[in-house]
Here is the input.
Amino acid sequence: MTQSEKKHIKQLQQKKYRNLYGSFVVEGLKSIRDFLAAGYIPEKIYSTVPFEQMKNQDLPVEIISEKNLRQISFLKNPKDALAIIKIPKSLSLPQSGWIIALDNLQDPGNLGTIIRTADWFGIKNIVCSLDTVDCYNPKVVQATMGSLANVSVFYTDLSNFLSKSRLPIFGACMQGKNIYQSLFPHQGILVVGNEGNGISNHIKGLITNKITIPKHQKSTADSLNAAIATTIFVSKIMREIN
Amino acid sequence: MTQSEKKHIKQLQQKKYRNLYGSFVVEGLKSIRDFLAAGYIPEKIYSTVPFEQMKNQDLPVEIISEKNLRQISFLKNPKDALAIIKIPKSLSLPQSGWIIALDNLQDPGNLGTIIRTADWFGIKNIVCSLDTVDCYNPKVVQATMGSLANVSVFYTDLSNFLSKSRLPIFGACMQGKNIYQSLFPHQGILVVGNEGNGISNHIKGLITNKITIPKHQKSTADSLNAAIATTIFVSKIMREIN
Here is the structure.
């Protein structure tokens, strides 16, 4: 592989270059195969191990040394392969089913974990405010463990999206109905807020169903991690409606 | 503050020095106050803001500059204060109530999140295998957001602990009873495994109640994050028994 290819890959750590080139990086054969199976288009696959071609596909694979992989990998412990994958064209915003709406979520690990959890429970759509961390950020892609391939992530003016939606809008609030005493409909939107500040004020006003995750009486915790709170909701909702 | 104090604090990033000196670092006034309120003994508190003394306590506070705090902080964005806190003496292993048992958990963020979630739901005890990440690791302490002060974390031969316990032992397994169709007793042990390899074989044999978190039929996810799986269990258990 050439120096210019190495440079190109390093650039894709940054959002501005991902937007410029319309591509992002996926590491590890298992994850790469998840993206290919979901119909994502690879620009290039660099692998240290033989890469079995998939049916009816002529994949742009280059076998590289482990030394080269160490040079291009974003990981402390590089895996077996790295691929440059095309960012898919945006679909139109979802209007039905259960949707997770993220309001200024900042931590890549949290977004990745939420995508992975959504995939597990069969939630297909996540709508993010424009200031939420980019889902093609390498740390996000890594934390999804391939699940980003199976969940559609949208970026839009969240306030506008929620205002126009006809779905009931649920959000975790300090003073709301106990989640364990709540029944959830077959479709709706779950709003999750920023790690430090929770749901922003202009979004709070759009929530139609305020819900609380009750805390144990002896707990001194102020809040739950954003991905954990999301999981408590999603686990309750999906179990109820399936 | 002196150079030797700065050096001492840096050393406490490493487990060997934490064990040698019997102390660890907590950052941020809110978390420091959580530890003091829970009875932890501070060796020294370095604060950039006035630190209100607590009742009947003569706290070893030194006001320092923000520049000094930046030099000693383990965080990219230092908070308002940093304290050296004594590691408490080990209590005897818990024998009742709900206990989370961690088998070779490696990610500091996961351990921190599990401790924070345990605190929220009122679980007081976490028993870890000897190869689980140290709970006084700065990244763990940070991720607990002060909740480490309210949860007792033990390190022991997990296999031995589980063998001797009379409590029912629950574990997440691929082939187990559906969690949503399971009823949980008022006390028990929940075993959570390593991020990559799950529960180790010698521990698996000790599980008396194998439980599965069912996956959506269309999901291609292989597994859930360890802290997420723990949350799904704890949320279900605590809601049921409270």
